[in-house]
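Sample entry (495 residues):
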Amino acid sequence: MSPFQDYVRYETRRQFFARGKNALGYAALTSLLSSTFRLWGDAKDASPATASGMGGRVLPHFPPKVKNVIYLHMVGGPSQMDLFDYKPVMADWYDKDLPDSVRMGQRLTTMTSGQQRFPIAPSKYRFSQAGECGLWMNTELLPLTAKCVDDLAFIRSMHTEAINHEPAISHMQTGSMVSGRPCIGSWVSYGLGSMNANLPTFVVLVAEPTNKEQIQAISARLWSSGFLSGEHAGVSFRSVGDPILFINNPPGVPAEVRRRQLDGLRELNELNYALVGDPETHTRIQQFEMAFRMQSSVPELAQVANEPASTYELYGEEARKPGTFAYTCVLARRLVERGVRFVQVYLNNWDHHGNVGGRLPMQCKDIDQATYGLIQDLKTRGLFEHTLILWGGEFGRTIYSQGGLSKDNYGRDHHPRCFTMWLAGGGVKGGTIHGETDEFSYNIVEDPVHVRDLHATILHLLGIDHRRFTVKWQGVDMKLTGVDAEAHVVKPILA
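Predicted structure, serialized as tokens:
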């Protein structure tokens, strides 16, 4: 029996009806409508949203505030009370136990649940007010970030149900603690389509931290397209060497030969599609064509060394070193400058269970000038008002110390009950401080913001109503913001 006969023999009923639903639907519709009704509009009428696979639904739903997103994810969970959530009263609580009235029996990780005590560890760093907004923040480690706080909107009341990294990162990136769902970048790619046919719509960059004491696993499931077509998955660019493996043709294979080869592959794939009808066959064709176009666009994109001296004065000398966070920020700017819609950046080693005094300064040095430089660079180039920048991790850290405690050093466990993120760029009201936590930075006391609220806000800035942005999957109208709870746009941080 041939492979095709095997495929048909074992095809499920669901696969059969999914494969034939368009033809059956068109036949039924044609019988109901007059012959003069045009089932398809002219190709020139198609919008980018329609072209991206939205099945005729036109996005955006309303005029967008931004066209691009740069998401700076700090893997591990930055300590909010050591950076942006100032708690001066904690100095009087040094080495005293966290009151039961504050903890209220809340769930702990296995790393501290066995501790006999939960001693308070005040931040050892110097805080002062920054900007016209008057935000109290760690100006000792983030002096340049302090200069642009009036461009940033801080949410100090973020919260999640996830207490460990795997479900927490998945929740933040895909809207679900169970891996396998489409990530934010894939949803945006699916809904809005591409702005540059020669580059991917969604690109992933993984930066290398200076300190590598506590590295968390980062895998492609975080930029998976899930139940969406594979063309909407993130394309990961490598930190060192060619951004994409095999981006160059082998020696002796000119571009004309590669073009003829791809034309032949396309014909074979079209024959396969005519026999089997698997839509992923067309995804494969599109990915081959994208790869061919990237052979000319990516090498030019990757020429970061050709940036003028002013770029390195702005981002710092670390931006000359491939793989650093500063280098990655320059590359992120070059990507959005060329029309890449969603750029996801990961920086590891924020999982500070110990040695906050030794590791946090190195992490902050990695991001401080680079983040400041990115914002100023986008402004100079007229891209800031069209780009949304996000910064934050998957959860926060505990006010009590994990392990040994001294006034100069301590560790902090995972804390999902409250953490801080900031947003900047188009549609964001800079200098906003939204939400408040108690004096222990342990519980939210004002304006809680759930992960799904953040997702709803991101989509809103892109002109998408999260309630109407759905995909039918396994009989459910799936959304980035989930189907089992309400999500709300965080309007106070919007301009």
